[in-house]
Amino acid sequence: MRKKNDVIFLAIFFICIFYGIVSPTQLTFSQQYKNGRLELRPILSIDDTILPERIVFENPTHIAFDDANNVYVSDYRACHILKFDQSGRFIKLIGQRGEGPGDLMAPAFIAITKETVVVYDIRSKKFSTFTRDGEFIQQFSYLNEAGCSVKKIRSLSNGCIAIEIEKKDIMALNKPCECYIDIVYPNFKVKKSINLGNTLDAKCVRNNTGTISFSLPFSPRFFWDVEPNVGLVIGNSKNYKIKIFNEEGVFKKSFDREYEQIKVNRYDKISYLDKYVGRIEKKAPNTAKTIRENIEFPSVKPAFHGLFLDPSGHILTCLYQEKREDDNSYYDCFDSNGKYINMIKAIGAELSIVHVNYNEKSLWGIELSDEGIYKIVKYGLTSIK
Question: 223 near 159, Cβ under 8 Å?
Fold first, then answer.
């Protein structure tokens, strides 16, 4: 009788697994990497329907998290920061459109410290700080030198902030830019500066309307990310060299990897011109014409076009592929010490633009529908049944 009951129990158990009634076993990041795939699935979605009346996502650009797992989203076009709890419930707006104290014009980057919300506005080129409850503290210019711009900011577990800066020579605009990362205290006093090197990712030319600046396709760049247990990981896509620093800015180690160069083909050129120049052509045909006449394509692509640290501290570089539609799907994966694991295919999200909550060890992203509607998505790893 007992044997019969065991058989019945097992039958019911496997039926439940098959139909998703019993939670299946979840693969870890390491297990997925060894299998050569990283499959993500949406487990939470935040869209316009949960926002207050007359507020929608207009152009969200960045996601950050505090130690209570609250979620902060900067909206570049709406000129405010939206705060949600970890379940996606809307809490409040921080900042507002304007040019006065506490106002924002184009908030692109945010970082959450132990006490404050730090916002960088790329239009005013100023930092604003708020309490986590949204009370304005101060606004100030960090960079007073001409030609300097902030490219990225990230909070560190030691309470400091990492700021990527690009410095152009305004007297020689087609000269390579100096790139570096400042690690600053909460009062923005520089603690350590890491020199990345030089890069040229834009070109300036003159026409009858003035000076036109446009990005250079497939130009090598520096990419970096931060994970509390690993530190700052900085990759140079020109030579596939990756350096690891601790959060104090002290160099730990470096590693590199041989790679197969991918040629820039005719389809790459057409696709780039249609997407980038075609958008300009509708509003400024003379500008678009000047860009088409002066744009230059390299013969080969850089080693990678993105770098990402997962919640477990693995280092992933986003690889170029022969087929342009596969460019955001394949990644080289290394452990936190730089040991190569595998090349993986990512399914369900583009990792190079995913944001990580290291406290909760979760992945978040910004998705845009074909209808032009934004939503904030939390992803989970796929499971095996």
Answer: no
Q: Spell out the domain ranges in the chain.
A: 22-262+300-384
Q: Report pLDDT for 159.
A: 93
Low-confidence ranges of the chain (pLDDT < 70): 1-26, 352, 383-385
Name the token pair of 51. 């926002």
pLDDT in tens, 113-145: 989 999 999 999 999 999 999 999 999 888 877
Q: Who's near 30: CB < 8 A, 6+ residues apart?
A: 312, 314, 341
Nearest CA among 105, 96, 12, 15 for reference residue 55 = 96
Contacts of 183 (CB under 8 A, 6+ apart): 156, 160, 161, 162, 163, 190, 191, 192, 193, 194, 247, 248, 249
213/372 Cα distance (integer angstroms): 27
> Are 38 and 328 contacting, i.e. CB atoms less than 8 angstroms apart?
no
Cα(251)–Cα(234) distance, integer angstroms: 11
> What predicted TM-score, i.e. pTM, was given to this entire model?
0.88
CB 84 within 8 A of CB 46: yes
Evaluate the CA torsion angle 141, 144, 150, 153 in order and state its sign. Answer: negative
DSSP 273: I
Q: 274-294 b/e with 16+ CB inside 10 Å = b? A: eebbeebbeeeeebbebbeee
Q: Please choose, from the candidates 123, 130, 122, 74, the residue with its C-alpha nearest in 3D space to the C-alpha of residue 101.
A: 130
Round to whole Å and give the CA distance between 313 and 290.
Answer: 44
Give me the CATH code for the 22-262+300-384 domain, please.
2.120.10.30
Give whole-number Cα distances, 259 to 238, 270, 300, 302, 317, in Å: 11, 25, 12, 10, 12
pLDDT at 322: 84
To the nearest whole number, what is the mean pLDDT of the chain?
Answer: 88
- Residue 18's pLDDT is 37
